[in-house]
Amino acid sequence: MSTTTFRAAVVRIPSGPDSIEIIDVPVVQPGPGEVLVAVAAAPVNPTDLGRSFRAFCVQITR
User: Which of 1, 2, 24, 60 is the most exposed place for a label (fewest CB within 10 A)?
Assistant: First the structure.
């Protein structure tokens, strides 16, 4: 396991579960009063899947 990157699930263009990509992201070092936590596994929950379809997206206007 690399200590300079981590794996992240991202959705660039919402179009369903197939739009979820797993990418490597640089680890940002914690600042004062922060901690870095190692995560062995994390699920994709129903809200994540809904966002991949735009089901839970909210448009903010000013």
Answer: 60
